[in-house]
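Pasting as-is:
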Amino acid sequence: MGFSCYSNAVNITVNNNLETVYAMLLLNSRYSSFSNNSFSYYALNDSSAKIQVFNSSIIVQSSNESTDWYSLLYGELYELWIYNATALSEEDVIFLAGKGCCGSYNNGVFVNNALVCSEEIVIPKKDDSGMLSIYVSIIPFLVILVYYARKDYRKYLAFLVGFLGWLIAFILRLPILANISVLKELWIVLLVPALMSGLFEEMIRYLALKYLSVAKKSFFLFAMGWSLCEVLIIFNFNLYSYLMLNQQLSFVSTLPGLVERLSATIVHLALTIMVIKSFKNKKFLVYAMLIHSGLNVIGSLMLLANFNIWLIEAMLLVLAAMIYYLADNVLKEGKIDESRRDIKKVKRKR
């Protein structure tokens, strides 16, 4: 995407949707003509200004040397931005209007304000690939569900129980989260929800696995349903809302969030195993609560300390793998002790 200034015209190269522009013109009763895959119309705020919209560019021309470029560019570009007819961001529109027809703009930084309008402004091309992250974060869960459940409705039910379990735990702590969110202390806003997650989620997880046998028998799918609900509400809802505000967000920029969801899914599976083991030894429930809250606190503290986001996600992924290994291979639920008790009972009977 480029921005070029000439003596009497501004050419802004963008990604446009001509149908959107045409609908906008009709809605506002604007004069327009169509020829060679382009629209031409006159600016409402300056009768001497002519705007041409092509598939790849917008050209703003004015025959009046005293044209108020700020009003012209801001009015027209902002309206096109509102209707998502250009790939410019709102910040780009404000900047271009403020600088008028002179200057050099490179990767979001104003470089030069030349008197001669012959500089080029380079604006990062709009990348809508961020929507791909939503599909990437959901599809693996659905594939896993269909592959493991197949025609067994009880396994689908276990997945649903896990999904609803996370949702219930989230709803229960919403009043507390709402009160905390208005506080000015950032460390409280980040750390208190992190601590609460372990308490609320592990208690609901314990109750679901303890009293719903279908969840315990298919604990893997239960954990996947639990994690999917968190993905939809915590990750996808925020991402989708951001994209709907016409913000530029690429798939690459969302990768740290996807890695975080992978780590969270591994941890949820590990915590599910710990909670099942807690039926014989309650200390495992305490372990699950502490690990869950501890991981969230570590991530929050690293964010407060301005650690590199990839360093944070890499560390959390390693910790998630270690916690899963610990839950599945190291921590014992007391089967040996139970078997010894059975042997002692048999000897006493003899």
